[in-house]
Design brief:
- There is one protein chain.
- With about 180 residues, the chain is an alpha+beta fold.
- It folds into two domains: about 50 residues; about 110 residues, Immunoglobulin-like, CATH 2.60.40.
- Helices cover about 30% and strands about 35% of the residues.
- The chain is built from one helix and ten strands; from the N terminus they run H-E-E-E-E-E-E-E-E-E-E.
- Strands 1, 2, 5, 6, 8, 9 and 10 form a seven-stranded mixed sheet that branches. Strands 3-4-7 form a three-stranded antiparallel sheet, with no helix packed on it.
- It is elongated.
Length: about 180
Amino acid sequence: MKAQLTKSINEMTKLDTLSSVATKTEVNKFFAYSFGLVLLFVMVFATVSTFAQAPVPAKAIPTQEVSALDLAKQTIVYNSGKVYLNWIAKSDSPDCIYVIERSADGKEFEPVGLKEGISSPLELLYSWVDTKPAQGELQYRIKQINEEGRLMAMSSVQTINQGESNPLFLEKGSRMVSAH
């Protein structure tokens, strides 16, 4: 009987040990998951803070080093309290990030949006919507940033007045898609 009791106690000890290991494994999984989330947060914060720097005056950017952004087409429309920017990148454009900037005075621009540019043998349509534009006349421009974070090109400044509305009745040459 004593041998049987000793055997039962040893089995219970093994079960306690296995239970302890399982609990430690769950804690390690939780720690690894938490660490992964913190790392992801730091990476996203670093990326966003790179592009969300203080507004830069237009004169501070040397125009000799930055070429004009070569787009097949670019439009800007105000409708229903929002500003819609559309542009078509020419075929064989490189992988990049498009940074959309806005200005109320045409001198100091602030980044308000990002769009990932994809290299393609075809022309690609990109769109971005400013859901909360400031009141009055606004200027927008698009910057093309390469994979190393260097400014490659910049579009010309486009001005929009909040009184200009309804994209279906724009002049034919400025529509991306015709409404029939």
